[in-house]
Amino acid sequence: MNNVFGVYNPVKIHFGRGLIAETGRIAKKYSDSALIATGKNSMQKTGTLDRVTKSLKDAGVKPVVYDKITPNPTIKEIDEAAEIVRKNNIGMIIGLGGGSPLDAAKAIAVAAKDNIPVWNYLKTPADKALPVITIVSTSGTGSEVNRYSVMTNPETGEKPGFGYECMYPKEAVIDPEIMASMPPYVTATTGFDVFVHALEAFTGKAINAFSSAYCMQAFYLLKDNLLKAYNEPDNLDARGNMALASALAGLAIDISGVGIIHALEHPVSGNYPSVAHGAGLAALAVASMKYNLESRKRDFMLIAHHYGIKRAGKSDDEYAASLIEKIKEVLAALKLNITLKYLGVEKDKLAKISKEAFMTMGFAVQNNPAPIDEKEALRLLESSY
Ligand code: NDP
Ligand code: MN
Q1: Residue 278 CB less than 6 A away from ligand 1
Q2: What is the structure's pLDDT at 3?
Q3: pLDDT over 90 for what percent of the chain?
Q4: Spatial separation of the C-alpha atoms in residues 366 and 369, rounded to whole Å
Q5: Which atom from ligand 1 is nearest to the alpha carbon of 253?
């Protein structure tokens, strides 16, 4: 385990049913105006957006709604929203929805400070941002509690993540009631994202005692609640436990990063924006886990244990490998035993995807337990095809 490290996370977390009604009281501390960054459909249809705007108005905070954030948000949307913030002198950003609006909110908060395109912040570190509040509706990315933002350049297909200290949300509202409306496919894809965060942080080179504690609790919660939330959408206990798992795994990747599954997935959904992040991860997970198995046998055994797999006379090798079999079963139960081909990825794009993983997700590649080069990454993509 890594014995030289720092741990920092300033996000104030509010967890509990019905808490979105408190948004106004929470937000009022930061400004009397807020841009709400949200998607095009779900938060309107479920009435959640109305509840949030009402709470803000009741507290004397003026809301301005920007509801054009697409899944896998683009730099165009972010720059457009930042312009609205500057023009109207808005004092804070509220991200409302899944990882896409939350990531967009953090990027808008940075981009609104200066009149330069958000893409420039990949090279020029930012040290100031407007205050951000996250209200999360998927579980999920963990974006509600970490500093990362992932954005897509639609012209090139590049989909890098970035995150500076000023981008931490001030406060996160985690209200399981607003997650019950997730359709099965969103529950499945976002829930599998939680598993991959915990897996990649736990087995990554940058793991430490703090992040591993978060991961272990996340595995434990996933074991009992991922399929339950999928099969019983209205089960608020399962929804709440998945929301906790998401936040814990989100804290873990904030400390210890991700690995090759995320490095390869970003250029997949960057080049094919209709692919849900978690679906891309599902297509890539099994081949990548097999690739890493040998270098992290003990970790795989530990995860198998936390995932409730019985040892029952298995050798170390068999027990470590049983985690991969278990994950195949989980993917099948979630109807996510899918391939890149099934997701519409063209075979002749695999080389570009492999190249971009190294270009835009270098830290994740470096953090992967087993060393990997572009050729081996291409082979992983081919076996996931
Ligand atoms: P999205 O935010 O993209 O949401 C996916 C879909 O689910 C959207 O159509 C959305 O609706 C809908 N939806 C969201 N919440 C609900 C709900 N409660 N009820 C019904 N429908 C709902 O999904 P994710 O949360 O998976 O976020 C993915 C993004 O986050 C990707 O860009 C990914 O790369 C990034 N990411 C960020 C990480 C981080 O650490 N910051 C880590 C991992 C991934 P609508 O269209 O209305 O928004
Ligand atoms: Mn992810």
Answers
A1: yes
A2: 75
A3: 98
A4: 8
A5: 40
Domain extent for 297: 184-383
Q: How far is the CA of 381 from the centre of ligand 1 (A)?
A: 24
Which ligand has its closest atom nearest to the C-alpha of 169?
1
Distance CA 213, CA 221 (A): 13
Cα–Cα distance for residue pair 203/198, rounded to 1 Å? 8
Q: What integer pLDDT is reported at residue 47 of this predicted model?
A: 98
Nearest-CA residue for ligand 1 atom 40 is 143
> Which positions of the chain have pLDDT values less than 50?
none
Instruction: Give pLDDT, residue 2.
Output: 62
Number of domains the chain is built from: 2
**pLDDT score at 1:** 63
**Do residues 204 and 349 share a domain?**
yes
Instruction: Tally the C-alpha atoms within 13 A of residue 175's C-alpha that lie toward its C-beta.
Output: 19
Distance CA 101, CA 107 (A): 10
Distance from residue 55's CA to the centre of ligand 2 (Å): 30
Q: Which two tokens stand for residue 215?
A: 């991961």
**DSSP 3-state assignment of 281?**
helix
Ligand 1 close to Cβ of residue 71 (< 6 A): yes
Q: Does the beta carbon of 98 lie inside 6 Å of ligand 1?
A: yes
pLDDT of residue 234: 97
CA separation, residue 105 to residues 4, 134, 170, 240, 248 (Å):
32, 8, 12, 23, 20
Which residue matches tokens 């930061």?
30
Identify whether residues 231 and 159 lie together within a single domain: no
Q: Using CB atoms within 10 Å of the CB of residue 204, give its burial: 0 to 12 exposed, 13 to 18 middle, 19+ buried.
A: buried
